[in-house]
Design brief:
By secondary structure, the chain is of the alpha+beta class. The protein has 21 helices and 22 strands. The strands form five sheets. It has an eight-stranded mixed beta sheet. Strands 16-17-18-20-19 form a five-stranded mixed beta sheet. The structure holds ligand BES and zinc ion. Zinc ion binds next to helix 6.
């Protein structure tokens, strides 16, 4: 029996993509809400690279499969032998790969065998059916939706969950184009993240059929579906928003800046938005992230509907992924920072241009604070604090933190400082142009950077710039970056001033006025400062701050969440009621993680009872991550 090994170029896949590579994926999918199942056919065209190939190994984690066939030149189906490998306990997250035996064709003395290996391409068709334990899909009952009339479902494939939907080469090293047909009974809609080419009502099956194409090659983690009672509103010529019924026009107002973000990014990178359409999908609150850059259909949390566009940076971030991530893709999860660090960098560039330098600086300060907490939380010696963590045998989701975002961002700021803003802008543009449609690691960026500097400056001057940059150290070193970036804003002093005013009970009326006028980001810096220096605040000051600033009622969820964290960390139980309500209506991990961790430290048993009673509303990914916290923090 074949010994299965994770692929050395991407240890989170079993697929043998160096021997055979998937080029075109055709999906025909339907949903059975009663049985919580997505099912259909996946037909894949592969390019054969190794002519003596024996097996096709596909990632698979959960779905039932049947009818594994070769499709021959006459479009006839020829059965293929295959086996599903059992769960390997220490590599559980990688799933149970499907091994399709091509030699079996030969043994059966099938005429197709010679055919296959004389050609460069083969087509395989597989039927699949997911069950209710699929981690890549969340189903909501109709009671859990806005109108409470119809069920809802959505997928989340990043990082390695595409294999929980259907068998695939589930690695960002491989990019393919997609043709997707979805079927569903009206009035529900069933969307795919691609370009809608046609749609019709099939009277025989009484189903609404949508036909999508994704003609830009994408990695499997960008495959995305959603089904429910959806509504659409236009934002601009190429932008729009999908929501649960009844929210679309409100959402269109909140995301009015989408078009501007795209234009600014096009300008900065000197590269057009290639995906044509940019739609945003606002999910129910259980969506575990702020945003997910699914092509043509960015998924976002409804918490972004703050009413004041104060969370629009998330849109800037997901739009930026259209270049960094979706055109140029990290080739494995060890290089995750090449997706997220670059996108953070773009996000703050766009905010600098759209909202001004001060705003972008504040975001860097907030980001740097979160980097510091993450490194302290993991411990400076943990490999999760490096930009190239080792994910062998573990689910990359378990190593998810702000480190790749913020340390990656700081590294790029450092590289920008060495050559100046204008040169760096050009380097970024060249990088996109050179590596679009491809998958990369950080050394590919390094080569563009060095080539640019060598062309721009004479030998000695080029060397002067390049010699001081220790790429390896930045990328592999654990703990805090050894080069300290200065993130200062004119608000830093104002924040300190206000903190002193509260401590000294000095002119509170004036302090209130100042706070009210601040942008959300300044408020966050203020609250983070309190959180980091809790020993200087007694409970009564903290309660006073809450009362005076009316913290819970008025502000966006970022502000609320940090306020709740402050009270838990201080050991106060006054807010428990509010915190429980918050945790019942928020599924974003950015909030769940710190709040549960602080609550567990304060009162393990009550936190556990509450979690067990309410976890059903969370996404499977969030449920698993929070459950892990309980397990690891158990005394
Ligand atoms: N691609 C990520 C979300 C993600 C990462 C999902 C890893 C699954 C595994 C997305 O682009 C992202 O970074 N979202 C952030 C936005 C923030 C940085 C502005 C989020 O959800 O908080
Ligand atoms: Zn991102």
């Amino acid at each position: 029996m074949l010994e299965l090994k994770a692929n050395s170029e991407d240890i989170n896949t079993y697929s043998n993509f160096q021997e055979i590579v998937q080029k075109e994926v055709e999906l025909d999918v339907s949903i059975d809400f009663d049985n919580k199942s997505m099912f259909g056919t996946v037909k894949t065209k592969y390019e054969i690279i190794n002519q003596s190939l024996e097996n096709i190994i596909l990632d698979l984690h959960g779905p039932e499969i049947s009818n594994v066939c070769l499709i021959n030149e006459d479009y006839e189906k020829v059965d293929l032998d295959c086996i599903i490998y059992d769960k390997n306990k220490d590599k559980e997250a990688l799933g149970t790969p499907l091994v399709i035996n091509l030699l079996s064709l030969k043994e059966k003395d099938n005429k197709e065998y010679e055919n296959v290996f004389n050609k460069k391409e083969i087509m395989i068709s597989i039927e699949f059916k997911t069950n209710e334990n699929c981690n890549g899909i969340q189903y909501l009952t109709k009671e859990q939706t806005r109108t409470k009339e119809y069920p809802f479902m959505f997928t989340q494939c990043e990082a390695i969950l595409c294999r929980t939907l259907f068998p695939i080469q589930d690695t960002p090293s491989v990019k393919s184009i997609y043709k997707v047909k979805t079927s569903i009974s009206p009035p529900l809609s069933f969307l795919f993240g691609g370009i809608l080419k046609s749609h019709y009502y099939d009277s025989a099956s009484k189903k609404k059929i949508n036909c999508y194409e994704q003609n830009i090659p994408i990695p499997s983690y960008l495959v995305a579906f959603v089904a429910g009672e959806l509504e659409y509103a236009k934002i601009s010529k190429r932008c729009g928003v999908w929501t649960e019924k009844g929210l679309a026009s409100l959402a269109a107002k909140e995301f009015i800046d989408a078009e501007k973000y795209i234009e600014i990014a096009e300008n900065y990178l000197n590269h057009p938005y290639e995906w044509k359409v940019y739609n945003i999908l606002v999910l129910p609150f259980s969506f575990p992230f702020g945003g997910m850059e699914n092509p043509n259909l960015t998924f976002v949390t409804p918490a972004l509907l703050a009413g004041d566009r104060s969370m629009s940076n998330v849109i800037g971030h997901e739009i930026s992924h259209s270049w960094t991530g979706n055109l140029v893709t990290n080739k494995n999860w060890k290089n995750f920072w090449v997706n997220e660090g670059f996108t953070k960098f773009m996000e703050r560039k766009l905010d600098k241009i759209l909202l001004g330098e001060e705003m972008s600086k504040l975001e860097s300060i907030v980001g740097n604070n979160s980097l510091i907490s993450a490194i302290k939380m993991y411990g400076e010696d943990s490999y999760f604090t490096s930009l190239s963590p080792d994910f062998s045998g573990i689910d990359p989701d378990d190593g998810f933190s702000t480190v790749p975002y913020e340390k990656g961002y700081q590294f790029l700021c450092y590289l920008e400082e060495r050559v100046g803003e204008d040169n760096f802008k050009e380097i970024m543009g060249k990088y996109i142009e050179k590596y679009k449609y491809k998958s990369v690691d950080w050394t590919d960026f390094k080569s563009v950077y060095e080539e640019y500097v060598n062309n721009k400056y004479e030998g000695r001057n080029a060397r002067k710039i390049l010699n001081v940059i220790d790429w390896n150290k930045w990328v592999t070193e654990k703990g805090f970056p050894s080069y300290k970036m200065e993130f200062k804003s004119k608000y830093t002093e104002e924040v300190d001033d206000l903190i002193n005013k509260f401590i000294n009970k000095d002119n509170i009326e004036n302090a209130k006025k100042i706070f009210k006028e601040w942008h959300t980001n300044v408020k966050l810096v203020f609250l983070e400062k309190i959180l980091k220096n809790l020993e200087n605040f007694n409970e009564s000051i903290i309660l006073e701050i809450k009362k005076e600033l009316n913290l819970v009622e008025e502000y966006n969820d970022d502000v609320k969440a940090i306020w709740y964290e402050i009270t838990l960390e201080k050991g106060m139980k006054e807010e428990i009621e509010n915190i429980m309500n918050f945790l019942k209506t928020h599924g974003r991990l950015k909030y769940l993680k710190p709040l549960y961790i602080s609550w567990i430290k304060l009162d393990f048993n009550n936190a556990k009872t509450f979690f067990d009673e309410n976890k059903i509303v969370y996404h499977p990914i969030a449920r698993r991550i929070i459950q892990n916290k309980f397990d690891s923090m158990k005394k």
